[in-house]
Amino acid sequence: MAWRLRLAPEKTNIDFFKIQWLTFGGSMLLMIFAFIFWGWFGLNYGIDFKGGTTIRTESTQPVDVGAYRKALQGLAIGDVVITEVFDPTFRADQHVAQIRVSSAEADQAVSEEAVGQVQAALTTLDAGIKFPSVETVGPKVSGELVKTSVIAVATTSILIMFYIWMRFEWQFALGAVLALLHDVFITVGIFALFQIKFDLTIIAALLTILGYSINDTVVVFDRLRENLIKYKTMPLKDVMNLSVNETLSRTLMTSLTTLIAVGAMLVFGGDVIRGFSFAIFIGVVLGTYSSVYVAKNIVLMIGLDRTDKPKNGRPSDHEFANIDA
Amino acid sequence: MLYTPLWKRLLILALCAWGLIASAPNLFYTQVEQHNDAATAIAAASGVATPDQSSQLAKWPEVLPSALVNLGLDLRGGAHLLAEVQVADVYSQRIDSLWPDVRDALRDVRDQVGAVRRMPSVPGVLRVQVSNADQIQVAVAKVAALATPVASLTGVGQKDIEVTAEGAEVVVQLSEPERVATDDRTMQQSLEIVRRRIDAAGTREPTIQRQGADRILIEVPGIGSAQELKALIGTTAKLTFNPVVQQTTNAAADPGPRNSLLPAADEKGLYYIISDEAVVSGEELTDAQPSFDQNGRPAVSFKFNVSGARKFGEYTGAHINEPFAIVLDGAVISAPRINQAITGGSGIITGNFTLEESTNLAVLLRAGALPAKMNFLEERTVGPELGQDSIDAGKKAAVIGILAVGLFMIACYGLFGVFADIALIINMALIFGVLSTIGGTLTLPGIGGIVLTIGMAVDANVLVFERIREELRTQKSAARAIEIGYERAMSAIIDANLTTLITAGVLFFLGAGPVRGFAVTLGVGIITSVFSAIFVTRILVEFWFNWRKPKTIVV
Fold it and tell me: How remote is the C-alpha of B71 from its chain's centroid?
C-alpha cells in the first residue's frame, strides 16, 4: 500500500459526547465571554462604521509616533490616533503608519481642510512622506453601513436556516444556525478582545465564515441523514457519533486545506487585508469545531422525531432521488 | 468500466480549454491593456494608427481573446466618491421662478384681493400676503390656475403645485408627484453633467452610477486624489449675469429685499450688492472657450443662444454706463461697466485667471451647471503604489497557497491528489476566464476570495475521495467504488456549496465596492470549483482507469 499522509486513523471510534460538559459547555462559556468583551471593550470600529478619516503614510524614514503626535497636536481637528503598521511583506526602508482622525463634532464629516492640515504638518516633519491612501466616510453613510451589515448577517442566517430546513429537518436547521452564530459571535468577541479594526471587509469575512461553517456542518448532517435511514434502531446519540467519526477524516482535510490557503493569505497577503484574513482564519477553526461539537449537540438536545420520515423515507442508493425540486 | 458519454467529455474538455484561453490575457496584463488601449484609440480615429499605436497593438495577437479582469480601485489606485445631490435645492429655484407669474396673476384681480406682498418664508415655499384677507379664496383660485400637469409617467393627471390659504397668505409649494418628478430630472441631469465633466478631463474607464434615490457613485481609476476629482466635478459652475445695485467694502451691509451681498472673487474686502433676478444665466450659453483679453491675460469667451442674446442685448442697451456682475458660484468674478449694447450674443469674461483656471472654467461652463449642490458622503483615495503592493502580495499569497494545498493533496491522496491539483488549476483558469468575460472587477478582498476558493475547491474532491476510500473498504470493485464515491458524495457537495452560494448572493446584493467584488469572485469560484471538482477530476480518473485498467486502486 502506497504511503499516504493521514490526518485521522482509518477507523475512529471517538465518543464526541463523552466530554460534552467541557466542549459544549466551553462553547457556551466562550459565547458569554465574547458578549462580555463586546460589551466591555466595545469594537474598534473602522471609519466605515464610525465615520472619520484614515490617512496612510509611507516613508523611507522610520515612523516616530511621538513626533507625529506632536506635529498634529496643535491642529484644531478632532481625535487623532496614530498607529505604526508592521508587515513582513514590507521592504526594509518602507515605514508605514495609519492615522485616524475622528470628526470633532459627532455628526460632521472630517473636512477637506483638516486632511490638508494633517498632510501639511507631516510633510514639514518628513519631506519624503507619501500618502498612499486617504479615506473619508461621513456619518450618514457609516450609520447606514452598520444597518446594512446587520441585515446582511441576519438575512444570510435566515436563508441558510430555510435551506437546511427544506433539505433536512427543522431541528437540523436550528442546530446549524445556532452553531453558525456561535462561530460569528466568538469571532466578534476576539476582535473586541484584541481591539482589531472592525470594518466593512470584516463583515464580508463574517459572512464568509457563515458560508464556510455551514459547509462543514452540512457534510456531517448529510451523513447523519444517511445513517439515520441505515440504522433505524440505533440510539440517536450513537448514530451521531458514528456519522462524525465517518466524516472526521474529510472534516480535518478540508479544514486544513482551507487553513493552508488562508494562512498563506494571512502571512503573505499584506497588511491591508490582514484583518479580513485573520477573521476568516479564526472562523474556519471555529467552524470546524462547531460542526463537530456544537451543531449536533443542539439537535440531540431538541431531539428528533424518527418515527415518521416523509423526507428521507425511501432508502435510496442515490441521494438525489430525494431532492424536492 | 467507468464511462461518461463522449459528448459530455467533449463538452467538459471544451469548457476547460475555453477557461485556459479566456484567462490567458490576464497573465500578460500590461501588454494586453496596451493592446486594448491602442485598439480603442485607433477605432476612435476611424482606423488611422500612429506608429506608436501600431507597435502597441502588435503586443497581443488579434486572434486571441483580449478581455481582462478589471482591477478595482483598491488595486489600481484612483479616487472614489459618494455624492449626495441636494435635490431639494431645485424646489426653491422652481418656486422662486414662480413669483413673477404669481404677482402678475394676482394683479389681474387686484380690485378683489387688494395689494399683494411677498412674505419671507422657508426655501421651497412661496408665501404671498393679500390685503383683503376675506377674498383669499379668489387669490388661491387664481394662483392655482397657474398649475400645469406633472410631466412624468407616474404623476399623470396631477398638478405640479399645491396652493393653500393660511390666514391672509397664499402658500405655494411643489406637489408631491412634482417633487418626485423633479428629483428624478435633477438626478438625470447631475449624472449627465458629472459624466461630461469627467469625460472632458479624459480619464480612463470612470464608473458613474446612480445609487438609491439621490446619490451618485463616482470611481475614477488613475486620478491622483479625491480632492482633484472633487475639484473637477464639485463646483456647481452656476453662472449668472446680474444687475449691480451697489459696490461696497462693508461685509455686513444690508442688501435689501431680494438682493444679495456677494464677495468679489479677485479682491479681498470688496463686496457687491446685486439684484437676485438674473438677466441671463449659464443655461443659455451655447459655447465657452478659453481665450485672452486685449491685454493678453487669460479669459473665457462665451456665446449665448438666441433668447439669451436677445435678453442680454436688451439689458445692456438699456443700462449703458452701469456695471453688471458676472456671478459664478456665489462670487462676483468681475463687474465690468457696460460701454455699449452688446447685441451679438457673445462676450468675454475677464478676471484674475491663470491659464489653467480659464481652461477649467470654460470646460465647466460648456458642460453646463449642476442643477443642485452635491455633498460628498464618502471619499477614498488609493495611490497606485499601494495598489501594486496589494497585487504583489495577493499574487504571492495565491501562488504559495496553491503550491502548499497542491502538495498537501498529493501527500494525502497520491495520484488522485494530482488529479485534484489539475482540477484546481483549471478552476483558477475558469475563475479568471469568467471574470474577464463578464467584465467582473477584482478587488483586494476578491483576491482573498480566490485564495479562499483554493482551499475550499479541493473540498468537493476530498469528499469524493474519502467516500471512495470508504467504499473500497467494503470490498467493492475499484470501478464500482469510484462510481459510488462520486454518486454518494454528490448530495453533500451540492448542499454545502449551495449554502455558500446563498452567502455570496447576500453579499452581492447588500455589499458595495470591494465587498461586492469579493462576492462576485466567491460566487464564481463556488460554481467553477464544483464543476472542476466533479466533472474534471471524474474524466481524469476515468481516462486513467480505462487506460491502466488497475485491479485494485489506492486512494
Answer: 16
ipTM attached to this prediction: 0.84
How many other CB atoms are found less than 10 A from the CB of residue B408? Answer: 20
* Contact present, B50 and B350 (Cβ < 8 Å): no
Domain spans of chain A? 20-44+142-322, 52-137
All three cell numbers of B31: 501588454
Nearest to B554 by CA among B461, B492, B482, B459: B482
CA torsion, ordered B53, B54, B56, B61, to nearest 10 deg: 140
End-to-end, the C-alpha distance of chain A in Å comes to 43
How many residues does this entry show for chain A? Answer: 325
What is d(CA B42, CA B138) in angstroms, rounded to the nearest whole number?
A: 67
Q: Give the integer Cα–Cα distance in Å for A228 and B274.
A: 87
Q: Of B344-348, B527-531, B540-544, which gets the smallest average pLDDT?
A: B344-348
Asked if B278 and B241 count as a contact pair (C-beta separation under 8 A), the reply is yes
Looking at domain A20-44+142-322, its CATH superfamily turns out to be: Multidrug efflux transporter AcrB transmembrane domain (1.20.1640.10)
Virtual CA dihedral for A242, A244, A248, A251, nearest 10 degrees? 150
Q: Which is nearest to B194 in space by CA: B223, B222, B235, B226?
A: B235
Per residue in B321-349, pLDDT tens? 888 888 877 788 778 778 778 878 888 88
The set of residues, in sequence order, having a beta carbon less than 8 Å from that of A28 and lying 6+ positions away, is none
B394 vs A: CB within 8 A: yes
CA–CA dist A267, A265 (Å, integer) = 6
Q: From B460, which residue of chain A is nearest by alpha-carbon distance?
A: A254
pLDDT in tens, A198-251: 988 888 888 888 888 888 888 889 899 899 999 988 898 999 999 999 888 888
CB B398 within 8 A of CB A263: no
| B437/B444 Cα distance (integer angstroms) | 19
Alpha-carbon distance of A177 to A182, in angstroms, equals: 8
- pTM of the full structure: 0.80
Q: Is B550 on the interface with A (CB under 8 A)?
A: no
d(CA B84, CA A286): 41
Mutate to test the interface with A, among B225, B235, B379, B529 (most CBs of A within 10 A): B379
Tell me the chain B residues in contact with residue A212 when contact means C-beta distances shorter than 8 Å.
452, 456, 500
User: B48-61 b/e with 16+ CB inside 10 Å = b?
Assistant: ebeeebeebbeebe
What is the third-level CATH fold of A52-137?
Alpha-Beta Plaits (3.30.70)
Calpha distance A212→A156 (Å, rounded): 12
Residue type, A114: A
AA letter at B95: I
Q: Which three cell numbers stand for residue B519?
A: 462576492
Beta carbons of B519 and A4 less than 8 Å apart:
no
8 Å CB contact of A265 and B458: no
Q: What's the rounded Cα separation, in Å, for the pair B1 and B537?
A: 16
CB B75 within 8 A of CB B215: no
B497 CB near a chain A CB, below 8 Å? yes
Of B356, B232, B366, B344, whose CA–CA distance to B289 is shortest?
Answer: B366
Q: What letters, b where the CB count within 10 A reaches 16 and e where it falls short, cover A84-98?
A: ebebebbeeeebbbb
